[in-house]
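Just wondering, does anyone understand what follows?

——
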Amino acid sequence: MSDQLKDAKRTKVLWLTSSYPRNEDDSASIFLRYLAEALANRELDLLVLAPDHHEVRPFPQPYGLVCRHFRYFFPRRLQLLAYGSGILPNLSAAPWLYLQVPFLIVSMFVAAARILLSQRPALIHAHWIFPQGTVAVLLGKLFRIPVVVTAHGSDAFLLKGRLLGLLKRWTVKQCSIWTSNTRATSGAVGFDELSKPHIIPMGVDYRRFVLGDRKSIAKQHKLILLFVGRLVETKGVAYLLKAYALLSEDLRVRTELWIIGDGEEIERLKLLAIKYRISDKVFFLGKLPNDKLPDYYAAADIFVSPSMIEGQGVTFLEALASGVPIICSNVGGIGEIIKHGETGLFVSPNDVDELSEAINRLITDREFRMNLSKTGRKIAESYDWQCVAEQFISLYISILNTAEFRS
């Protein structure tokens, strides 16, 4: 911990986000919860402001961390824009939710302004460029405090259009400092005239995943293929099902495919499993409590995630820390974590045959799997949340120590 914050009065920081765990077992943007808890242990008073939802149930927070939720639509049960599959997939599935977008933005602005007036935080940290970053920059100018904006991937890769492009460009140009979870994410923002971002990845609770208990989950002598993530089209689970169906009967007898997560694609994927005649080998386990995930990773022999778009992919870090070799697409920032032939295997996006061949190779080559596992664990250790938190602490200090904002 830096002496500059250790010896000073606890620094207040306001976070703005469109997603944050709503209860003890929720996995919505769980990486933000882990980062927030790591920062709260570093002499920071952190206040997280996120949208309300009918599943919000307060749970114990560590000292220095407070989470508040703002209402943006009535009745409460109709607040459906955030959470679930994510704002963009939610809008795609239910276009009427576009009506809620201005209410969410205005409500976030008002709720944050009230916090700034009452709590007087030293800086604002917005997660995702739009709308949180844009709201944060406006508030920063109004209250004359610095603003950090972090791009996580979906804001860089998926938010398209002339108006959104202008808003994103203005937001990144006007904030004090911006960060990106990978170089690929920052490159996808695509504005040559912008200042260079600080590349700070999201992390993993390394010790927690290293200590996963395989025996508590795996009751049969099967090789387990595992997917963990939101069940949306861009995750490529439909291709995974087809690739698994292409395996020989002998390999399917020896294996099972576990799919953890929920989302708009769930029913279509179940129908595909029936169509491909693998429904007896594919287990849709739904959304599991976060404290159970390390055991499921430990039970797995191969982690498969053929995403088509990925800013960073925290699940890849969880798999590495658990010692599970990985098969994935080399898209977005994945290549900054996974090394082909060293910690996993790359396949071309949407290439079912190549994906099936990679699965075949790892199933049949146990020695190769073990080598990938050992190397992966070593790499994952450097992404532990304590290391990531220290990078953000240093960033906060550098901003607060600039002449423009020095008190």
Q: What stands out?
A: The first strand starts at residue 11 and ends at 16. The longest helix spans residues 101-119.
